[in-house]
């Protein structure tokens, strides 16, 4: 990286880059890692992880040139943070220390993790570097669905949550009714705002179901793409373009694509018979 950024012998493209210009590439590389994992393309994963690591190297080079920090400082900072946040693994706060008693319950680990993060926020406030809020340190640049999930999770950790999933579902229905009301009034701007509220309520349901809404939506995107490509191919076999086809024709092929994805009854029964029952600990 230092050679690529060398003023005399470096690459002209790399020499033009700065902190801001690399950010879009960093986000893209992170999504490519996620995509490879979701596709189980493990043969591609080393390359994708290397591309993501290269982004970290890039930023560390910018910092080195400015005399701020170096790559080793990133590793040391990360190591110190992991030691501090895992006293249940490293009781003395050193890499060589180990617990002498048994494993800690996951609930205790999560509670300790959140307490430590709260302590870090308080420390930043004492240094005058941050306000203290349960919502501090949630990056504004996160994808909206992911940030909504983090905001709602952090608020729920403060007791601001529904008692069960039914309350969230009622909220979703309430927000959908407000969308319908705004559309009935012809107020599309209000309807747009209510759609945002509806999405946020759905994100809360995903959180209650312990799933990542960003990941769930990506899976649905893949499913939609797969089915629509089937519709296009089926129409092409009929010598019809999507623009020429009727909605009824497209819907028929869409349902055919869905039917192909459903396991056949015999297959489903066999899978169920072969799947062992899971106990509480599993």
Automatic annotation (TrEMBL):
It comes from the Bacteria. Residues 239-282 are annotated as: Disordered. Gene3D superfamilies: MazG-like. Keywords: Hydrolase. The lineage of its organism: Bacteria, Pseudomonadati, Pseudomonadota, Gammaproteobacteria, Oceanospirillales. GO terms for molecular function: nucleoside triphosphate diphosphatase activity. This is Nucleoside triphosphate pyrophosphohydrolase. It is an enzyme of class 3 (hydrolase). Its EC number is 3.6.1.9. Pfam families: MazG. Residues 250-282 have a biased composition (Basic and acidic residues). Residues 19-90, 170-231 form the NTP pyrophosphohydrolase MazG-like domain.
């Amino acid at each position: 990286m230092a050679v690529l950024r060398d003023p005399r012998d470096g690459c002209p493209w790399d020499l033009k880059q700065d902190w801001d210009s690399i950010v879009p590439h960093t986000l893209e590389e992170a999504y490519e890692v996620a995509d490879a994992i979701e596709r189980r393309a493990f043969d591609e994963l080393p390359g994708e992880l290397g591309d993501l690591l290269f982004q970290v190297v890039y930023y560390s080079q910018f910092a080195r040139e400015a005399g701020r920090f170096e790559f080793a400082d990133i590793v040391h900072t990360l190591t110190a943070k992991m030691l501090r946040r895992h006293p249940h693994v490293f009781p003395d706060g050193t890499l060589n220390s180990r617990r002498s008693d048994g494993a800690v319950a996951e609930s205790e680990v999560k509670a300790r993790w959140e307490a430590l993060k709260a302590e870090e926020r308080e420390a930043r406030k004492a240094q005058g570097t941050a306000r203290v809020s349960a919502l501090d340190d949630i990056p504004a640049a996160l994808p909206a669905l992911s940030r909504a999930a983090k905001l709602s999770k952090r608020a729920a950790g403060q007791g601001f949550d529904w008692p069960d999933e039914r309350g969230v579902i009622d909220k979703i229905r309430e927000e959908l009714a407000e969308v319908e009301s705004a559309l009935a009034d012809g107020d599309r701007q209000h309807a747009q705002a209510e759609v945002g509220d509806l999405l946020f309520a759905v994100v809360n349901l995903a959180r209650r179901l312990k799933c990542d809404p960003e990941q769930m939506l990506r899976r649905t995107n893949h499913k939609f793409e797969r089915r629509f490509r089937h519709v296009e191919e089926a129409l092409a076999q009929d010598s019809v373009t999507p623009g020429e086809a009727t909605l009824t024709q497209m819907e028929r092929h869409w349902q055919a694509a869905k039917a192909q994805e459903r396991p056949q009854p015999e297959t489903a029964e066999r899978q169920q018979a072969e799947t062992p029952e899971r106990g509480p600990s599993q």
